[in-house]
Amino acid sequence: MNAEGGRISAVETAPSLPDGAGIAVRGVEHAYGELRTIERIDLAVEPHGVVGLVGPSGCGKSTLLELICGLRDPLAGAIEISGVGDSPGRLARCAYMPQRDLLLPWYSALDNAALALRNQGARKGRARERAAALFERFGLAGFEATAPAELSGGMRQRVAFLRTLLAGKPVLALDEPFAALDAITRAEMQGWLAAALRADPRTVVLVTHDVEEALYLSDRVAVLSARPARIVAELRAPEPRAPDRDGAVTDPDFVAVREEAMRALREGMR
Amino acid sequence: MKRWLPPTLAIVVLVGAWQVAASTGAIASALNLESFLVPSPAEISSSLWENRSLLAENAWVTLREILIGLGCALVTGLGLALLLHLSETLRRAIYPLLVSTQAIPIVVVAPILVVWFGYGILPKVLIVALVCFFPIAVGALDGLRNVDPDTVKLMRTLDASRSQIFHRVEIPTALPSTFSGAKIAAAVAPIGALFGELAGSSSGLGHLIVQDNAQLEVARLFASVVVLAAIGIALFGLTALAERRVVTWR
Ligand SMILES: Nc1ncnc2c1ncn2[C@@H]1O[C@H](COP(=O)(O)OP(=O)(O)OP(=O)(O)O)[C@@H](O)[C@H]1O
Ligand SMILES: [Mg+2]
Predict the structure, then answer these.
(1) Which helix (H) or strand (E) holds A80?
(2) Closest chain A residue to B162, measured at CA
(3) What values do phi and psi take at A235, rounded to 5?
(4) Sorting pLDDT into bands at 50, 70 and 90, what band is A136?
(5) β-strand pairing of A35-45 with A23-32
């Protein structure tokens, strides 16, 4: 997995790298009718920072991502991305990778990856060209014309991530990107994502069930309570990290922070 | 090759049995009928051949009614489905009305339309459109309802406009179920045209059938039915073929 990661980071950075954008979430509350999902959340992400969100199932993680992306508006509080607070403005600055990959079955892997470019008005040929250049880097070469249903789970996830990346947005909102994968593919994909973000840094909010994944991929991890969600702990990932994933997650400092996060998670579930 | 074998075999066996039963007079004597009233497949095919120009002429009349009627049903059915998709209020208001068009018995409506619009092509086209409209509209509407709201959200964060979401997500999602509706429409369209012609006409396969029935031209009557069935099968087949070419991802 590391050979793959090394190859990605060695290649020069993407052509149009968006400037970093910071995220500021202040006093945000949200409810679906009577169902209160988010109590009061304050969260700041610095430009090109990666923040992980972990929390019990159904606590409101996906809802928080949708709020940040401008797909929903909070009941109270404010969310700003690079100082812009209205939802169309946030929508223009965020790319969302949903919990399910949602690849469109009527398009090839390449056309799925190029979807945002097409939406932004690029010609089909040009959009495919730009996506194809990254297929190579993401270990998808040879699968350009393949239908999504015929890709493996790891490949589908990579196409979905590529689609998110190619939108060219400064903020990536990733909702449990690897939840559907088996343990080995998942570890491989984590190493891969870390390398991809080193090559092409973005401001990232990463939702996951997995504390280890959150700590390995993020600078900082916010632990959420059961619904209605509030932040019960914010932990900094140990630095410096070993270059390979296995080395990083077995480091004693890393294990200590992981245990602390697990404790916070357990507390928050009560 | 293997796929075609069982249905071909079934048809051969059936037609063969009919041939034997009819030519030995077994059916006629069992029903206590004159044997010319029970034509064998061989007699029907020779009638098909002998009357080929007459049948073709009338088949063309019926085919035109079917095609124009189907076209009208496609335009109005798809149009209405779109309209109801865009407005939930309209959908709630009109959906029951749409269902009620199917409760109207065609046998009753057909003669009235003939009284109103005469013996020409118009009442037949209207009847075909009436029976085909419902499966097409409901198929398209159900298809549009299948659109995944999460996919729409995803498209919005990928900078898709309303019309891009429509073209790239909503239409492809709706296609399979729309084609199912269109196949049903293609199969019932000939029956609609037939009802229209039975209610009053001066040409067409239905007109021929009425005449042959009165004159006890039973072999030619069967020949007309065979032609009508062939039209229905061909329309269904063409629609299924179009579906296979368009909906490649299933
Ligand atoms: N559109 C909606 N309308 C009403 N309730 C909703 C809606 N979406 C989610 N919910 C409810 O809100 C709560 C929070 O949902 P959300 O999807 O944000 O949780 P989550 O933390 O992402 O869960 P999971 O870990 O299972 O993905 C859940 O109880 C869910 O049932
Ligand atoms: Mg979720």
Answers:
(1) strand A76-81
(2) A119
(3) -120, 140
(4) confident
(5) antiparallel
The pTM for the full model equals: 0.84
Which ligand has its closest atom nearest to the C-alpha of A227? Answer: 1
Q: Do A119 and B150 touch (CB under 8 A)?
A: no
Least Cα separation, residue A176 to chain B (angstroms):
15
- Domains of chain B listed by start with CATH number: 50-246 (1.10.3720.10)
- For A33-55, how does the pLDDT look when each residue is reduced to its tens digit (9 = 90+)? 999 999 999 999 999 999 999 99
Kindly indicate whether the ipTM for this predicted assembly is greater than 0.90, answering yes or no.
no
Report the nearest-CA residue for atom 16 of ligand 1.
A60
Q: Using the beta-carbon criterion (under 8 Å), do B153 and A98 form an inter-chain contact?
A: yes
Helix (H, G, I), strand (E, B) or coil at A49: coil
Ligand 1 close to Cβ of residue A100 (< 6 A): no
Whether A62 is in the pocket of ligand 1, judged by its Cβ within 6 Å, is: yes
* Structure confidence by residue, pLDDT tens digits, B116-152: 998 889 999 999 999 999 999 999 999 999 999 999 9
CB A221 within 8 A of CB A190: no
Q: Could you tell me the distance, in angstroms and rounded to a whole number, from the CA of residue A60 to the centre of ligand 2? A: 7
Write the CB contacts of A18 (distance below 8 Å, at least 6 apart in sequence). Answer: A168, A169, A170, A202
What's the rounded Cα separation, in Å, for the pair A228 and A56? 11
Spatial separation of the C-alpha atoms in residues B64 and B128, rounded to whole Å? 11
Q: What's the CATH number of domain A6-93+170-268, 3.40.640.10, 3.40.50.10700, 3.40.50.300, 3.30.930.10? A: 3.40.50.300
